[in-house]
Design brief:
The protein is mainly alpha-helical. The chain has a two-stranded antiparallel sheet with strand order 1-2.
Length: 75
């Protein structure tokens, strides 16, 4: 999953997942669970990192993960 995100230029969300409890929360999902990630751009996450505390930053990122499989046409 992170490889796909990084290949599309979403590096900071991967770094945030690695350095917070988000990675652990994703790994503890059931094996067949669907997950849709609304990945913010690196520029947005960089700006967000400057103005928010670490816990607030993680909570904001958590809002970008939902336990549903959504296609582009679903949006």
């Amino acid at each position: 999953m992170q490889r796909v995100l990084r290949n599309h230029g979403y590096n900071l969300i991967c770094n945030a997942m690695d350095t917070s409890d988000l990675q652990y929360e994703i790994l503890k999902l059931p094996p067949k669970a669907f997950l849709t990630i609304f990945a913010p751009t690196d520029a947005f996450l960089f700006a967000l990192d400057i103005i928010q505390t670490a816990s607030s930053y993680t909570e904001t990122l958590r809002l970008h993960f939902i336990l549903l499989r959504l296609s582009l046409s679903d949006l």
